[in-house]
Specification:
It is built from no helices and eight strands. It is mainly β. The strands form two sheets. A five-stranded antiparallel sheet has the order 1-2-3-7-8, with no helix packed on it.
């Protein structure tokens, strides 16, 4: 938990699924599938803008709460996952 400060993200592997784990500026945690729906590119390499993450390949932005794209060229959402924080540990439910 301490290695992901607010307003940053980290690639984690949960049951062989690549997850972009985001500690947003609002203090909440979000988990979104790490692969952009437009092109096979890692979202965790992008930037967090409020409650969106931007794909570094073509600039599509995805809502961290819903996975829906908010900017082209992506038109398909990516999966989001429920996050729970307990005793300084972050758990992602696939």
């Amino acid at each position: 938990m301490n290695d992901v400060p607010p307003d940053s993200q980290k690639l984690v592997d949960v049951e062989s699924t690549p997850i972009c784990l985001v500690h947003a500026e609002d203090g909440d945690w979000y988990a979104i599938n790490d692969i952009c729906s437009h092109e096979d590119f890692s979202l965790s390499m992008g930037e967090v803008w409020g409650l969106e993450i931007e794909c570094p390949q073509h600039g599509s932005r995805f809502d961290l709460r819903t996975g829906k794209p908010n900017a082209l060229p992506a038109v398909e959402p990516v999966a989001v996952y429920q996050v729970k924080v307990e005793d300084e540990h972050v758990y992602v439910d696939l």
